[in-house]
Amino acid sequence: MFPYPSGSLHMGHARVCSLSDVLARFHRRSGRKVEHPIGWDAFGLPAENAAIERGLAPTAWTQSNIAHMRTQLAALGAAFDWHRELSTSDPAYFRWTQHLFLRLWRAGLVERREALVNWDPVDGTVLANEQVSPDGRAERSGARVELRRLAQWFFKITHYAEDLVGDLDALDWPDSVKQQQLNWIGLQHGVALDLAVAPHCEPAAAPARVEVFVPDAATSTERHGLCIAVGPEHPILASLSASRAARVAEWLQQAMRTTSHAAHDAAGMPPGVWTGLVARHPLDSSARLPVVVMADMLREPSDGTMDAAKALARGIAGADSELAAWIAENAGSDGLAASVRINTDAWLDGGVARRASSHRLRDWLVSRQRSWGTPIPIVHCDSCGPVPVPEDQLPVTHTWTASSTHKAAPGDSDAAACACPKCNGAARRETDTMDTFVDSSWYWLRYLDPHNTSAMASPSCSAQLPTDVYIGGIEHAIMHLLYARFIAKFLAADGVVALERGEPFARLLAQGMVLGTAYRCPDTGKYLAPTDVDTSGEPRVVATGKRAIVSVEKMSKSKHNGVDPMPVFERHGVDATRLYLLYRAAPQDELVWDSAAIVGMERFLARVRTLVDGVCAAGSGSRIASSPPAESGTAGSATLAKAMADAREQVTAAMTRFGFPVAVASLIKLSHALAEWPPHHAQTRRAVDLLLRLLHPFAPVVTLELAGRLAGAPVTAEQLAWPSAADAAFEAAVQICVVQVRDALPVEYGREACFAFL
Predict the structure, then answer these.
(1) CA 522 → CA 527, 540, 545, 547, 558, distances in Å?
(2) Cα-flanking dihedrals φ and ψ of residue 139, to 5°?
(3) Are the beta carbons of 679 and 614 closer than 8 angstroms?
(4) Exposed, middle or buried: residue 687 (CB in 10 Å: 0-12, 13-18, 19+)?
(5) What is the pLDDT confidence band of residue 69, given thresholds at 50, 70 and 90?
(6) Which of 125, 191, 266, 321 sits 20 to 30 Å CA-CA off 386?
(7) Using alpha carbons only, how large is the chain's radius of gyration in Å?
(8) Which long-range contacts (CB under 8 A, 24 or more apart) does 545-548 make?
(9) Start-to-end C-alpha separation, the chain
(10) pLDDT of residue 341
(11) What is the mean pLDDT of residues 105-125?
């Protein structure tokens, strides 16, 4: 996964790049054609805020960061295909992101509508549900998130919900990632009913109709427990009176601040608010079901859902006083008797319900009210409505200056004025930009043809898809990875690529996070910079002398616990650092950073260097002994041959299943075996050569140097081919056999004849 150019790499970046680089080098040395591209997820809110704080244009800030991080990646020794480098903020790239938007528009998968959104008042932008913490705060700024109703752009990802679920089984992905996507999509089977709804105080009023979904798993065993639960965006709420709508809106603002059940209980809040509407029961015309806006559905689909479990679990009858009074008034009638319990079989038999499916997944809200992003290629005309910008006018760009700030009102500026592409009348450009997940949803395709000026990618690129191995953090399981799958499926359906099942990533390696020690002030909880903490003994806050709160957390700039790789490289060496990152923990597991432990890898590399020095000191190839030394014997020669074959087999197998710690352990074991073998023997030289070739993907710098010394001339990486089984078995004729020579053997055979026969 390409990095965000925050300004500098930390060890989390170094780990993921080391993982991808060792795989790329292994497959290249094995004779395969490998694309190992690199790019930059360059748009986004953090870069815009950082640029504003420094009085810079975000373009300059981002390009400066990319230049610095490019230098750091080079120092890591990663063999990236730099000729494929791309940046999402480059007009040559986002011109095709806008083209993607227009393709989706033409396919009917783009919609602009009013929606209740999470608004961050500090950053001045809309947040995805995933960016809001359980206590109702913005994940990045920490501000109290507000609910606002704004006109927003959506991609209809829900049209692909069943395909996104059904195709997961075919992917070689970790089960945990698949399960997260299944839970997020939340596909359920059940029945759908069409119910008549009217105000409870106006039973004779013309009823509205609402479709309600009842999952198969729903049950209702308690009297009076059933209601119609709806989300805050359900169309039925438009029929509420002004006073009732105001009451619902007030409750929503409160609910937004306490989004968890525990928080609701602590605040004494009702888990839902009655709309004053009731629905007629499908089989009993005298029975009524209250329609309730539920807190549980603030981040759920807006479809009406007959869900007794949520209503009962939240004690809705006792929590909303108005609804409780209505239920008490109607409890004596048949209106809330056993007949209103869930009975899908009876509803299906009675012809009032049909089999249906529903899901938690909502359409993808892609609007962002910031300038540093891909401009949405739409023009608003009073006569024609929203009009797509013609393809020959792409890319649509913004003027990104040092004064660009979210506090401005770009929609009112002269810069938004333009002519309508359809009628040539006065119009204005859309000023929202796209969610950065749109930029990263298709870069895997652009990598294959990054300089194409006439298409997103040439059709011939399909032969190189899907991506064989995709490496990144598990935290992207339900956003980036889901959105990329959706876009890939759309591009396949739209004929842009030929991609089986529309899946972009055949195999996923979800690497664990690198954790670092973080310090917090005991009074404020604020994260402290290392310079603010005295660690000479028990960690204490320098300013107050109080004991600091110590924790081990994901490396992050905001937590001041990131480790800059450059000083580590300078102190321990790039190769030793890479080996530490690959050996310390399985790639799927978290890695707690401990720089003191790198010394183990330094000792290993020193042992390899000593082996090469010994072989080189033993003389040129013409002086190397052609038979095992007397002290080694035939058995010793066979033992070394077996160690070589085992190492080659174990490392090769480990590379195919991401078992990097096992691979490094096998190489260390082989180095120990070689350390006890005479350096002047021919097999020693071959074994050391084998070790260097196996080690090369892990430690490319030192192995190139040592392989050159062993060969007596500089070598290239291409010359260090991955050893075949035959390479590791050049003493295959020497075998260890258990032989029993029996006394009853005829004497005339003779001892020499017996061994010759065997």
Answers:
(1) 10, 10, 11, 7, 17
(2) -60, -35
(3) yes
(4) buried
(5) very high
(6) 125
(7) 33
(8) 546/521, 546/522, 547/522, 548/519, 548/520, 548/521, 548/522
(9) 59
(10) 60
(11) 88
Nearest of 153, 197, 562 to residue 369 by alpha carbon? 153
Say if residue 678 is preceded by a cis peptide, omega within 30 of 0. Answer: no
Furthest-apart CA atoms within the chain: distance in Å: 120
pLDDT in tens, 273-316: 888 888 887 777 677 788 888 766 655 443 333 333 332 223 34
Task: Evaluate whether 421 touches 69 at the Cβ level (below 8 Å).
Answer: no
537 vs 5: CA distance, rounded Å = 36
What is d(CA 131, CA 116) in angstroms, rounded to the nearest whole number? Answer: 15
| Predicted pLDDT of residue 495 | 95
- Span 214-228, mean pLDDT? 61
Please give the torsion angle defined by the CA atoms of residues 473, 479, 482 and 483, in that order, rounded to the nearest 10 degrees: -120
pLDDT of res. 216 = 77
Please give the full DSSP string across 415-446, using - where no structure is assigned. GGEEE-TTT--EEEE---EE-HHHHTTSHHHH
How far apart (Å, rounded) are the C-alpha atoms in residues 448 and 460? Answer: 10
Inter-helix orientation angle 633-656/11-29, to 10°: 120
| Tokens 């829900």 belong to residue | 158
Tokens of 51: 């640029």
- Band (pLDDT 50/70/90 cuts) for residue 410 is very low
The pair of three-digit structure tokens given for residue 686, joined into one six-digit string: 């071959």
Q: pTM of the full predicted structure?
A: 0.84
Query: Is residue 758's pLDDT more than 50?
Result: no
Give 748's pLDDT tier (boundaries 50, 70, 90): low
